Amino acid sequence: MTQSLKTVRSRPLESSLLVLTIGFGAALSGLVLSAAWPGLTRDLGGSGISGHELRVQINDTDIGLDQPGAPVAVRVGLPGDGAVVMDEADLAKLGVQAPDVQVAYLAESVNIGDRSRGLDVSMVTSDYFNALKVELMVGSLPGAADYKAQRPVVVLTEYAARTLFPGQSAVGQELQNFKVVGVLRVPEGDQNLFRSADQTQFGALGLVPYGSTGIQQSGMNILQPPLSTLRFLPLPGRDAQAAEQLGRAARARWSERVSVSSNLVQRAAVGRAARLSALSLALLGVGGLLIASLSILALMLGRVSSRTRQLGMAAALGASRARLRGQYLGEVVLLGGVGSALGGLAAAGLVWWMGRGVSGPYAGWLTLEPLVLGGVMLGSLLLSVLFGLVPAIQASRVRPAEALRA
């Protein structure tokens, strides 16, 4: 190893080039594999409403205003042409005909203030709280009296309460004429529905009773919002059965004008696509290491060719083949170790720097994974040694007479 270190020091340009090649391969692979890791390891199915919600939706796209006299309803198409009408009563009707449904609810995204402030909330019926399995941190949930009177009260997420009312209690505060009555902690499986963490800048700030505010449609504020989707949460493990039951009931009620969609099916498709993309990225990362290893092979073979006379003299003076192989492998281990370490540090820095700029639904996806970075550094070193075996064997087979004549 001492002789290997001397040789490395005596050829600084070649040694630096080898270190940079190994480091570049390790850094590129570390960055790419860190980006691919979440897609390979994370479950995109969801554990709450996010992953299992069933939706009965109107297929028509021409949505008109509410039917007069129906507090929560919508006509699709023009009056008198057989337009589909949905209202809250349909939740109970379909729920009875679908025994594998445990909760039925309505949920519509609305803005309760100036859109530039991003005050988006979810307007929900009371059963939504049961479906979401809300953990109340402080205060209370909207009660039956709040729903009956359609009072402007809001339950904020922990993130929203901390952001909108820093250093003070949110309960009792006013938010665009809505009184804050409680603060909730969002279940982990449903965090994509809310702004529930510092780095998650999307989703709703909280929940308000259905009918307590209007929504914007075509530039008009509609006090009673149009309803085009009924939402259901199936019993655990009964997603397919509940979807089939809802489909039969919906077709009997509205013929083919409505359809049933499943978050579980959609998210499974998204998961397959994400895993395929992640696998492609992972193969690209491994390919980067292999290309760097081939470069190491070429550079080490060049080192052997340039030192043929020196190797011949060493062999003539009694150096054994094992010693010559060991010297070259020692150089590879030294250079590979330094290059892998530098590449791993560079990958960690790139992942940290690029991860800071990722927000929204992908926040937290590009993070430092010790297992990935450690594997990249170890793999880079092992590949360096593996591809350094051929030059080492070639160096040990140099014949002294031929080398000296050359």
State mean pLDDT (0 to 100 scale): 75
Tally of strands: 15
Distance between the termini: 28 Å
Number of helices: 13
Which shape, going by the Cα principal axes? elongated
As a whole number of angstroms, the C-alpha radius of gyration is 32 Å
Relative strand content: 15-25%
Query: What's the main sheet like?
Result: 7 strands, mixed
The helix fraction, in percent, is: 40-55%
The secondary structure category is alpha+beta
Any low-confidence stretches, pLDDT <50, length ≥5? 61-80, 216-223
> What series of H and E elements makes up the topology?
HHHEEEHEEEHEHEHEEEEEEHEHHHHH
Provide the number of structural domains. Answer: 2
Task: Please give the structural blueprint.
Layout: H1 2-10, H2 12-41, H3 49-52, E1 54-58, E2 74-75, E3 85-86, H4 88-97, E4 101-105, E5 107-111, E6 120-124, H5 127-132, E7 135-139, H6 144-149, E8 153-157, H7 158-164, E9 174-175, E10 178-185, E11 206-209, E12 215-217, E13 220-222, E14 229-234, H8 239-254, E15 258-262, H9 263-306, H10 308-316, H11 321-356, H12 370-396, H13 400-405
Parallel strand pairs: 6-11, 8-10
Antiparallel strand pairs: 1-14, 1-15, 2-3, 4-14, 5-6, 7-10, 8-11, 9-10, 12-13
Helix pairs in contact: 1-11, 2-9, 2-11, 2-12, 9-12, 11-12
